[in-house]
User: Fold this.
Amino acid sequence: MFVTPAFAETTPTDGTTTETGVAHGEGHGGVFPPFDPSTFASQLLWLAITFGLFYMFMNKVIVPRVGGILEHRRDRIAQDLGEANRLKEESDNAIAAYEQELATARKKAGEIAQSARDKAKASADAERARTEAELAERMVAAEASIADIKSKALADVDAIAEDAATSLVKHLLGGAVTKTEVAAAIRAAAAK
Amino acid sequence: MATEKVDPIHQFHINKIIPIDIGGLDLSFTNSSLFMVIVVALAGGFLYLTTANRGLIPSRLQSVSEMSYEFVASMLRDGAGTQGMRFFPLVFSLFMFVLVANLVGMFPYFFTITSHIIVTFALSMLVVGTVVVYGFWKHGLHFFNLFVPQGVPMLLMPLVVMIEVISFLSRPISLSVRLFANMLAGHITLKVFAGFVFSLGSLGALGVGAAILPLLMTVALTGLEFLVAFLQAYVFAVLTCMYLNDALHPGH
Assistant:
């Protein structure tokens, strides 16, 4: 109120004022400007207007926008990580499938080799068994013929021994013995 | 004119640009109002334009905006918890407003709006008002638990409650005076040392040589004042977060 006249004078020359402000400072009656209550109402009003607008602008535009940017980036990173994990899992699965395939192929090859070996062995066994059976058969036949020949020969030996014994008795003792006596004697001698 | 002494207080004078008088109340548009508009336009314009591309990979200026956002967000989360994030627009606006106002004030011939106690007091009353209104709205009379710390012997209780009440009431004062006094004192000191350069320089050759010392001091102080400008904005925002924490969790 008491300052107003002084201000009214300063405003027109405001553009050129630098040092002249000192004089106006004294025009305030020595009040330290930050503590000059006459300016409070104006400062409060304009602070309320400017800060209010600033707050509304931050609240409605800037905060949602920057928050959105940051959230979008976070989502995008999470999504990319998820995608990378998915791809890794896929490649892991492919490797596992490949290894399983390889294992079955190896097993199959082993089986084939094994069956071929078994077949060869079986046929060799059969051949050998056949041959052995044939040989055994032949051996049996040979043994039978030997036994036959032997028994025939043994029968001949008895007859020869009888003849020889009969003639020996005749020549040595001059008597005659019957055929049955000689045979009994030979049998007794052979049993001894 | 040139020999006139340098007045370090002159920079704080408020001059009317458009006189407005409503019912005897002086509501003029002053240089202070002009710089409020400049601060808001600068801060708002910077944040608006740098984030206009919404880049997935931020440009340099966009990351400045994002950094200030995340800086305040982590400050608020640490100070007042996740629930405190509902006050984020307020704290972010306060921080950006005070920071840009302090930085703008560092330019020669520019007015520093935070060097006026009424501005900082209004801002701190806004904070404390928010705390009180939200505290009562959310907790009702339980908000008074703020003044009753747990685990204090009954005998000491009246004393402790009194101390708590006084400390609560002094908050808006300490919050506003801290910012105001820092800005005011810094600008006066700068002006005084710069004034030494000017008055020594006008003394002739010897004076010019001697003027180098206050000049170096002025340069160093300018660096310090930029630090203070940021630091005071940070302190203001941190304390705001702590006070808001009381509104959210009054039971300590």
Summary: The beta strands of chain B are 16-18, 21-22, 25-26, 29-30.
